Amino acid sequence: TPSKHWSLQDFEIGKPLGKGKFGRVYLAREIKQSGFIVALKAIFKEQIEKYRLHHQLRREMEIQTSLRHPNVLRLYGWFHDEERIYLILEYAHRGELYRELRKTGRLPEKQAATYIASLTQALAYCHEKHVIHRDIKPENLLLDHEGHLKIADFGWSVQSRSKRHTMCGTLDYLAPEMVENKAHDYAVDNWTLGILCYEFLYGVPPFEAEKQTDTFKRIMKVDLSFPSTPDVSAEAKNLISQLLVKESSIRLSLQKIMEHPWITKNVDLAGTCSK
Ligand SMILES: Cc1cc(Nc2nc(/C=C/c3ccccc3)nc3cc(N4CCN(C)CC4)ccc23)n[nH]1
């Protein structure tokens, strides 16, 4: 409830779930009223001050609080004490998608298509709210108790009405216009859907290289090739090829992704929790 003023006393802190750059995320239970399980992200104020990230953190909080979509992790509220700011986040019971990806190596086409459809629907929702995520990568994707995908960590997202210029994230998922530090817009998220689709099916991102400079060159050249194994369907390769296009204006739109044969043929609609 937005009006309520939360404090640490309202929560029983459980196991640490993970350690981010600026603090830790803990399993927690709200003990005063609901017994509700949440994820509590504790961020050190001195880290925010040191890296001058107040505006970015404030933007992440405003954006994520305002977004309501089944595939976007909820931010229920926040509070602070002397040294830390706490974000009260939705708890995704099955953890990080990339751990599932590392465990299985790669995903069956139906599972990959279901995740891409969920991501596309979540991004369409974000884009109509003028939000570009810009940092969609497996580390930022969580799975809820039903295996539904949740986009987390809006740390790098921006409220965009004009073109953006800020550099961010690891290179593997960045569109050419971002790695070239050029003006970029919503279409960067479409590019990233192509990267993720490739990684879900082959187990590695398409432009992976030993050195970052080589990844940079491969992205700029759109040096895309499909290994002969695993044997991936022609439709999947067709969708990826229509997203990993250098000219951002001709990348397949989110609407067209939802209508693509690989999606319509493979998506298990129950898996996309589309209401
Ligand atoms: C914000 C949030 C996290 C979250 N849930 C989970 N986060 C993280 C790892 C989180 C993390 C955080 C910061 C940096 C790195 C990792 N790991 C998790 C691991 C989980 N399990 C339970 C299921 N097991 C199969 C694997 C381990 C469950 C939920 C997890 N819900 N909401």
Count of helix runs = 10
Oligomer: single chain
Helix- and strand-based class?
A: alpha+beta
| Mean of residue pLDDT values | 89
Spans of at least 5 consecutive residues with low confidence: none
Beta strand %: 15-25%
Strand order of the largest sheet: 1-2-3-5-4
What's the story with the biggest beta sheet? 5 strands, antiparallel
Percent helix among the residues? 25-40%
| Bound ligands, each once | ligand 9A6
As a whole number of angstroms, the C-alpha radius of gyration is 19 Å
Alpha-carbon distance between the termini? 23 Å
Q: How many β-strand stretches?
A: 10
Describe the protein.
This protein has 275 residues and is an alpha+beta fold. Helices cover 36% and strands 18% of the residues. The protein has ten helices and ten strands. The strands form three sheets. It has a five-stranded antiparallel sheet. A three-stranded antiparallel sheet has the order 6-8-9. β4 and β5 form a beta hairpin. α4 packs antiparallel against α6 and α6 runs antiparallel to α8. It is globular. The protein starts with 10 loop residues before the first strand and ends in a 9-residue tail after the last helix. The model has no long low-confidence stretch (mean pLDDT 89). The structure holds the ligand Cc1cc(Nc2nc(/C=C/c3ccccc3)nc3cc(N4CCN(C)CC4)ccc23)n[nH]1. The ligand Cc1cc(Nc2nc(/C=C/c3ccccc3)nc3cc(N4CCN(C)CC4)ccc23)n[nH]1 binds next to β1, β5 and β6.
